[in-house]
Design goal:
24% of the residues lie in helices and 44% in strands. By secondary structure, the protein is an alpha+beta fold. An eight-stranded antiparallel sheet has the order 1-2-10-9-8-7-6-5. It has a two-stranded antiparallel sheet with strand order 3-4. The chain starts with 8 loop residues before the first strand and ends in an 8-residue tail after the last helix.
């Protein structure tokens, strides 16, 4: 069993193929799964003013269903991400394709939620970087932020607007 971390951790595999992130969230996995799959909640927590945030989320949460999000970024201007759900197993697992406006390759994201003591160990795996070290590093940094934002939203109700 992995050691629970209350701060997000991410690692990049040596071949720059995969980014793996983990965090312990003091909440039931059902609550976390809901925050990940409800567009009205996702738009509230995913981002930070002064960095980037998604101000639009659309999700058809079922295998084969489409999802998309868009928003402004300090560095890239307006950006989009979209994909298709590959696996939906509430509240244990969620997987989807990830195609962004800043990276030409389509990749895959998987969220695994494991009950652990008084909360949930969340493991995120993002694969498909095909050795692109810059993209793997950029996504590793991004996922560290995202995991922290999700934790703050679920545990404390922190939103994009209340986050400093």
């Amino acid at each position: 069993m992995a050691t629970a971390s209350i701060t997000p951790t991410t690692q990049i595999t040596p071949d720059n193929e995969r980014v793996v992130g983990e965090i312990f969230i003091a909440a039931p996995r059902e609550r976390i799964f809901q925050a990940l799959t409800d567009p009205k909640q996702s738009v509230r927590w995913w981002g930070q003013n002064g960095k980037y945030h998604f101000n639009e989320f659309q999700m058809e949460v079922r295998v084969g269903g489409k999802w998309s999000c868009a928003g402004p970024s300090e560095n890239m201007g307006q950006f989009t991400v979209q994909g298709e759900f590959l696996e939906v197993d509430p509240p244990r697992k969620l997987a989807y394709t990830w195609s962004s406006s800043w990276m030409p390759e389509s990749t895959q994201v998987q969220w695994e939620l494991e009950e652990q003591g008084s909360g949930t160990l969340l493991k995120l795996t993002h694969t498909g970087f095909a050795g692109n070290a810059d993209q793997a590093k950029g996504h590793s940094l991004g996922w560290t932020l995202v995991l922290g934002w999700l934790q703050a939203f679920v545990e404390k109700g922190e939103t994009v607007d209340s986050r400093k």
